[in-house]
């Protein structure tokens, strides 16, 4: 029996990749039953044709309430305002929710957390297996290097249409380093540097963002010591890795108990960590 999936943010880059990967059965056991997006020009179009592949027999709508209640999982790559705004409704329906939307502020995150008290939610700044494994390695590295004088910097590059900075993935990696060092990320985080910031303090994690062209996503965590530099990196060359990860998370979370999960929870059966 297939897991019934609705894509929220269907007409965006990730939405189209998700639709195509479902229709091409990159992850088996999923059925597309809804495609939601607010873009007026796409309303009523077949979601598969809109995504550049075969017809899906599902038309794009801007009304999540028409398709969300009867779905098993909603996969959300929309906007931070749309995600937070839909949280109470999704909680009421009890539909499982996979969220790849980034840029959520504290109030918006609180709305997602409240929904997770009533329905299962997977929230992650990055859905790829490689990035989630990298987070694991960064945390292990930080644990090993703690107290040994290694400074941490996170570098990230994305396409010129990305709206948030630092990226959700960069923050995941920074959190992994902070966890390994036993630091509070909010206290240690510094976003870029300019002017005369002075000497770098020990308890600091720097974030640096590049935006240009059609870069899918490059991330590097640097552990800079005296006399050596350790770099742990990941480069995405296709959005399919994020789409496939999100679809695997959707397959996994359907029917789970209500609580907030991470991608690491969802990927344990794949990564074995």
UniProtKB/TrEMBL annotation:
Active-site residues, record numbering mapped to chain: 158 (proton donor/acceptor), 162 (proton donor)
UniProt keyword list: Amino-acid biosynthesis, Cytoplasm, Diaminopimelate biosynthesis, Lysine biosynthesis, NAD, NADP, Oxidoreductase
Residues in the signal sequence: none
Pathway: Amino-acid biosynthesis; L-lysine biosynthesis via DAP pathway; (S)-tetrahydrodipicolinate from L-aspartate: step 4/4
Pfam families in the record: DapB_C, DapB_N
Catalytic activity: (S)-2,3,4,5-tetrahydrodipicolinate + NAD(+) + H2O = (2S,4S)-4-hydroxy-2,3,4,5-tetrahydrodipicolinate + NADH + H(+); (S)-2,3,4,5-tetrahydrodipicolinate + NADP(+) + H2O = (2S,4S)-4-hydroxy-2,3,4,5-tetrahydrodipicolinate + NADPH + H(+)
Coiled-coil features, chain-numbered ranges: none
Subunit and interaction comment: Homotetramer.
Family: Belongs to the DapB family.
Record protein name field: 4-hydroxy-tetrahydrodipicolinate reductase
Organism of derivation: Pontiella agarivorans
